[in-house]
């Protein structure tokens, strides 16, 4: 063997060229542990994937085939940066179900509402700006906010979600400290991850505080139509035309098309379109026409009813299993819709430290720290009931409860009252965390 | 001959394994070999049975892939494979056994205590932890006995940190090892035996930017500086290579292994971990050693595949 002279490498010759916002992007053991979540042996209560098995696939295939035959050269061509006019008109019908009246000119189509969130953050935020978010908040949003080097400040919540009193206090404190607050990000319906829903009066109170304090509201509503016990509560945007509203077809139809939208006041919309054009030229044209065809030719509201029935059974199964299995000291939310239950573990447990034990026990869950930008959430876990069938949910909750019991036993052995909780920085959404 | 690179599995290191497997498979294809990539699942044994000329390259990290179980299955099925046997893998993967074997062979290794969680519960943790501290002194290292990629590993500076470190280790398995801390330069020495006896490749020195060679530092390109051969005296480099070959022999390893060690300020290398399936990802240590030795990844594995088949 011919040995070479001494070689000194960091295995990335561009390591000193990355932007500051990229330097925080690292692999993590937690994300790596999720690599096993898609194995059949594992019951994954981690993923937020919609269950689309009940879609009428043959009918959808037929209508998309017709779309290509009749209009292929248009649906496979570049399109408008703002999105296709016909789809923007149809989106008005979708939003009307939650009390929103608007004009199609103020709708901007995006590659999923995640891109809408990115564009909104891009046009409003400079490094160091503050974004207010619920406690806890969507991990994918936190990842986007942090990628723009903003400071995320969480606002306290109660059983009805974001607390207006805490909001007012937080705004006052931040203003006194000279911080620039750019907007409040909120998920009023079936919050991801808490599952909590803001009642109508609560929404009005939040809007009132924000109006008084001059804080823009960004309302993210991917789950609103997946209400499981009652009619939808009107959106915040229905009461205030200055609210920026993010909508999505990912949960009410299918996520693979990557089509969402932003409804924004005129001046904001202009900037969003320019930002969209610089990011992608135009949102995916084929997907837009496919969804437009679906809305025009299929019973999309009937499909939402089918989804509701499926998710209701799964939600009820999870809540029943939690009541049967979980040890004393644990509590959890009872969502009226959406995909998620937010579990608070007995005092002292650290959900992230428990994750390897979960993998050993063949159950996956998302540690609560992922949903905070400031190190909170160590005692929390997000469980999702959207994807596994009811029998797997029961098994998964049994395994999860065993993991919690075993962790309690180990903590008790070593006389630990509380695990040391380190700051955990969200790094953006993965397929299992959305 | 059909080469089957097996990666994935159900261990905590599945992600790393898949990355290693993809890289080795591509390297073998680059030197003209036909390769099938497979995961560990119910389809695997039927695949092996219907492939009579199969040679397996196990790139499984952690769990069944490294603890010898999977390799023993291959032995039962008479499927040749690259790397150490099932029995030697079982010795090596379990840190509580490997360190004892290495010490028994007269080689330098840290003082170690291996204990299951249950014994703390039955005897009372406070007294036992006090005894451990008195025996080993601080700082010390706490690790799961059967895990890799530094998962569940904690350096404990004083007694107050020991309970949390043990809890972290027991999250990965029922036995934890507690070792005296050895200060010095961390290096990894890959041993290759491609038919003419085990030869230690140039030692790779590990300098994590964060100061700790944890999971992030291991698998985020740019977070760790690797110097090959390590910046040590010629005597220390020679001693490290001799230790790696001695460990390879003491644990009964074959074909390929990697020994992780600390070189003390005096130049004495001290064993702390053996690896029967060294990582082959873009940020792994063994490929750096191959490169420093003037060897190509694909050529090395092609040679080992032929050797396993012979």
From TrEMBL, chain B:
E.C. code: 6.3.2.4
EC class (word): ligase
Cellular localization per UniProt: Cytoplasm
Cofactor (UniProt): Mg(2+); Mn(2+)
Pfam families reported for this sequence: Dala_Dala_lig_C (PF07478)
Cofactor stoichiometry and binding remark: Binds 2 magnesium or manganese ions per subunit.
Alphabetized InterPro entries for the sequence: ATP-grasp, ATP_grasp_subdomain_1, D_ala_D_ala, Dala_Dala_lig_C, PreATP-grasp_dom_sf
GO-annotated biological processes: cell wall organization; peptidoglycan biosynthetic process; regulation of cell shape
Active site feature: 13, 149, 284
Pathway annotation: Cell wall biogenesis; peptidoglycan biosynthesis
Annotated coiled-coil segments of the chain: none
GO molecular function terms attached to this record: ATP binding; D-alanine-D-alanine ligase activity; metal ion binding
Gene3D superfamilies named in the record: 3.40.50.20, ATP-grasp fold, A domain, ATP-grasp fold, B domain
Family as reported in the entry's similarity comment: Belongs to the D-alanine--D-alanine ligase family.
HAMAP family: Dala_Dala_lig
Annotated protein name in UniProt: D-alanine--D-alanine ligase
């Amino acid at each position: 063997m011919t040995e070479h002279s001494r070689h000194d490498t960091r295995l990335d010759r561009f390591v000193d060229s990355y932007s500051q916002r990229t330097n925080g992007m690292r692999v993590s053991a937690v994300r790596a542990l999720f690599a096993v979540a898609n194995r059949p042996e594992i019951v994954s209560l981690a993923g937020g994937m919609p269950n689309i098995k009940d879609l009428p696939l043959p009918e959808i295939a037929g209508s998309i085939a017709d779309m290509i035959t009749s209009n292929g050269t248009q649906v496979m061509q570049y399109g408008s940066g703002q999105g296709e006019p016909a789809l923007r008109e149809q989106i008005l019908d979708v939003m009307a179900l939650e009390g929103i009246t608007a004009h199609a000119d103020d709708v901007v189509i995006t590659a999923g509402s995640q891109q809408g969130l990115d564009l909104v953050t891009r046009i409003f935020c400079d490094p160091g700006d503050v974004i207010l978010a619920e406690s806890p908040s969507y991990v994918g949003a936190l990842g986007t906010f942090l990628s723009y080097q903003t400071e995320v400040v969480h606002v306290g919540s109660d059983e009805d979600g974001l607390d207006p009193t805490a909001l007012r206090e937080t705004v006052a404190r931040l203003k006194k400290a000279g911080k620039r607050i750019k907007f409040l990000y909120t998920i009023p319906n079936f919050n991801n991850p808490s599952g909590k829903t803001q009642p109508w009066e609560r929404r009005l109170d939040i809007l009132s505080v924000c109006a008084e304090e001059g804080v823009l509201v960004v309302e993210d509503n991917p789950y609103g139509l997946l209400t499981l016990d009652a009619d939808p509560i009107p959106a915040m945007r229905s009461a205030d035309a200055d609210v920026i509203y993010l909508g999505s077809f990912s949960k009410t139809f299918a996520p693979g098309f990557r089509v969402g939208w932003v409804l924004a006041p005129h001046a904001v919309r202009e900037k969003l379109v320019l930002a969209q054009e610089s990011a992608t030229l135009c949102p995916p044209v084929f997907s837009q026409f496919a969804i437009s065809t679906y809305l025009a030719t299929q019973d999309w509201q009937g499909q939402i009813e089918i989804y509701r029935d499926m998710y209701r059974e799964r939600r009820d199964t999870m809540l029943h299993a939690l009541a049967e299995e979980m040890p004393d000291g644990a509590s959890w939310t009872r969502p009226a819709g959406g995909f998620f239950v937010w579990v608070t573990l007995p005092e002292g447990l650290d959900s992230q430290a428990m994750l390897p034990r979960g993998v050993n026990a063949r159950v996956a869950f998302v540690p609560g720290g992922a949903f905070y930008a400031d190190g909170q959430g160590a005692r929390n876990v997000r469980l999702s009931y959207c994807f596994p069938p009811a029998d797997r949910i029961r098994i998964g909750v049994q395994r999860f409860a065993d993991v919690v019991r075993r962790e309690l036993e180990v903590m008790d052995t070593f006389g630990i009252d509380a695990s040391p909780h380190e700051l955990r920085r969200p790094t953006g959404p993965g397929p299992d965390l959305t | 001959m059909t080469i089957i690179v097996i990666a994935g599995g159900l261990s905590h290191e599945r992600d790393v394994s898949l990355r290693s497997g993809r890289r080795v498979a591509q390297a073998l294809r680059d030197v003209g070999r036909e390769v099938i990539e497979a995961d560990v699942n119910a389809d695997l044994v039927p695949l092996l049975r219907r492939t009579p000329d199969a040679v397996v390259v196990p790139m499984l990290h952690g769990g069944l892939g490294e603890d010898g179980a999977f390799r023993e299955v291959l032995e039962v099925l008479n499927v040749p494979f690259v790397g150490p046997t099932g029995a030697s893998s079982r010795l090596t993967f379990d840190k509580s056994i490997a360190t004892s074997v290495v010490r028994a062979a007269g080689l330098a290794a840290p003082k170690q205590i291996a204990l299951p969680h249950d014994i703390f519960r039955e005897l009372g943790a406070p007294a036992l932890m006090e005894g451990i501290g008195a025996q080993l002194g601080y700082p010390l290292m706490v690790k799961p006995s059967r895990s890799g990629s530094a998962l569940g590993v904690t350096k404990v500076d004083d007694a107050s940190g020991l309970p949390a470190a043990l809890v972290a280790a027991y999250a990965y398995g029922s036995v934890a090892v507690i070792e005296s801390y050895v200060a010095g330069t961390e290096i990894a020495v890959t041993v290759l035996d491609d038919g003419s006896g085990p030869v230690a490749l140039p030692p790779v020195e590990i300098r994590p930017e964060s100061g700790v060679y944890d999971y992030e530092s291991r698998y985020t390109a740019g977070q760790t500086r690797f110097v090959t051969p390590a910046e040590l005296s010629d005597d220390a480099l020679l001693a490290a290579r001799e230790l790696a070959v001695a460990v390879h022999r003491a644990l009964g390893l074959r074909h390929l292994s990697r020994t992780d060690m600390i070189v003390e300020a005096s130049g004495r290398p001290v064993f702390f971990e053996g690896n029967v399936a060294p990582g082959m990802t873009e940020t792994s240590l063994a490929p750096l050693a191959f490169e420093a030795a003037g060897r190509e990844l694909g050529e090395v594995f092609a040679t080992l595949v032929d050797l396993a088949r012979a």
